[in-house]
Write a structure and sequence with these properties.
This is MinD-like ATPase involved in chromosome partitioning or flagellar assembly. It comes from Actinopolymorpha rutila. By secondary structure, the chain is α/β, with parallel strands linked by helices. Helix content is 30%, strand content 11%. It has one domain: Rossmann fold (3-Layer(aba) Sandwich). The chain has an eight-stranded mixed beta sheet, sandwiched between helices. Helix 9 links the parallel strand 6 and strand 7. The radius of gyration is 20 Å and the shape is globular.
Length: 367
């Protein structure tokens, strides 16, 4: 007999009440539908949680301006005086200055999402949709004209956590730009933590790894997970999305490549091919197939099971509350999250530049 609560769509996508969650969407390689998936996650979160999507992709390479109906090519018709106040540039401040709550809220571009039919008992919490605007999420992206200078987006996840708190959001979806495999290996060879290292050590963040539903995409995801495990990251707190970017069936041996990945990650979700997305991206949210939204909701549901409250006080990248400091005055690294059923790792000893281990190729600072 089917359980009564198994059909409650609204409750399935809810995050723990009062807990702020970050979902960085990271592509294993380019052209895997990363931005579209980020938008789908925000759309699923919007009816139950105040949500912001932060687009870190450089202007012109990002599709978000076109999806929002702005487009960088149409920037000449916009108010030039407000270019700095709208979108992601309006939320950024010079280093050392705290974020301005009013400026952050004014910079956000509101995007309404179609209301889905809810069955009886699917009550939404009061922290979700705004009563005046209806369900929707906010977007911070750079949609200014080509004549404007580029924007340097912070990489530190603490900045995004501080952004959520400043703007009053409880869920933040971060559409990243650099291919995660290339960025992580490059950081490892340079003996420094990668962006994925920083995301993985936060209890309030659940990295979402995206790859294409193809033989190459499955092999790329399997290699990435192997590298992350070798480097000591908690891959069992990560979710993978395998996106069908074409209308053809993937090869049968793809499931064999994904089999060991399913045992290591928290979840591996197949996102079906959607003709509306392949034709117009996320420009027409009302035309998305139910199976597409169901896959995004499954990812959010698994992320809700993994997310935990973040640090009570920490140093933001732009002058937030101060957290623990190291012996030389720099911010102390946050403690890595310990997965359920796994013993915490012993504390790592300090390694200086003369330590022999630091001279080895591929050395990564201990977590």
């Amino acid at each position: 007999m089917k359980r009564r609560g198994s059909s409650r769509r609204g409750a399935g996508a809810m995050l723990p009440r009062g807990v702020r969650a970050l979902l960085p969407v990271l592509g294993a390689n380019g052209g895997v539908g990363r931005s579209a998936l980020a938008g789908l996650l925000a759309q699923v979160l919007a009816p139950t949680t105040r949500t912001v999507l932060v687009d870190t992709v450089p202007r012109g390479a990002s599709p978000w301006a076109d999806w929002l109906g702005l487009g960088v090519a149409r920037g000449d018709a916009r108010d030039v005086d407000r270019d700095e106040a709208v979108g992601l540039p309006g939320a950024l401040v010079p280093p050392g200055r705290p974020l301005d709550p009013a400026a952050v809220r004014d910079a956000a571009l509101r995007r309404s999402v179609p209301e889905r039919r809810r069955r009886r008992g699917d009550d939404l919490p009061d922290l979700g949709a705004d009563a005046a605007d209806g369900p929707g999420y906010d977007v911070l992206t750079d949609a200014r004209p080509w004549t404007r200078p580029p924007v340097a987006v912070p990489e530190d996840p603490r900045w995004y956590a501080h952004l959520l708190e400043t703007g009053g959001w409880f869920a933040g979806v971060v559409d990243t730009s650099a291919p995660v495999a290339l960025a992580h290996v490059a950081a490892r060879n340079a003996a420094r933590p990668s962006a994925l290292d920083e995301w993985a050590r936060r209890p309030d963040a659940v990295p979402v790894l995206v790859t294409s539903a193809s033989g190459f995409g499955a092999a790329a995801l399997a290699r990435l997970v192997q590298v992350l495990e070798h480097d000591g990251l908690s891959v069992d707190r990560m979710v993978a999305a395998v996106v069908e970017v074409t209308g053809t069936d993937p090869p049968r041996w793809m499931d064999g490549e994904l089999a060991p990945v399913r045992e290591r990650l928290a979840a591996v979700v197949r996102v079906p091919h959607d003709k509306a997305i392949r034709a117009d991206g996320l420009a027409r949210l009302g035309d998305l197939a139910p199976g597409t939204l169901a896959a995004a909701q499954e990812i959010v549901t698994r992320a809700a099971e993994l997310v935990r409250p973040g640090p009570a006080a920490e140093t933001s990248a732009l002058g937030g509350p101060s957290g623990p400091r190291g012996p030389s005055g720099e911010a102390a690294p946050a403690a890595p999250a310990v997965a359920p059923g796994r013993a915490p790792a012993p504390p790592a000893r300090h390694r200086g530049p003369d330590d022999p281990d630091t001279q080895q190729s591929g050395w990564v600072p201990r977590r």
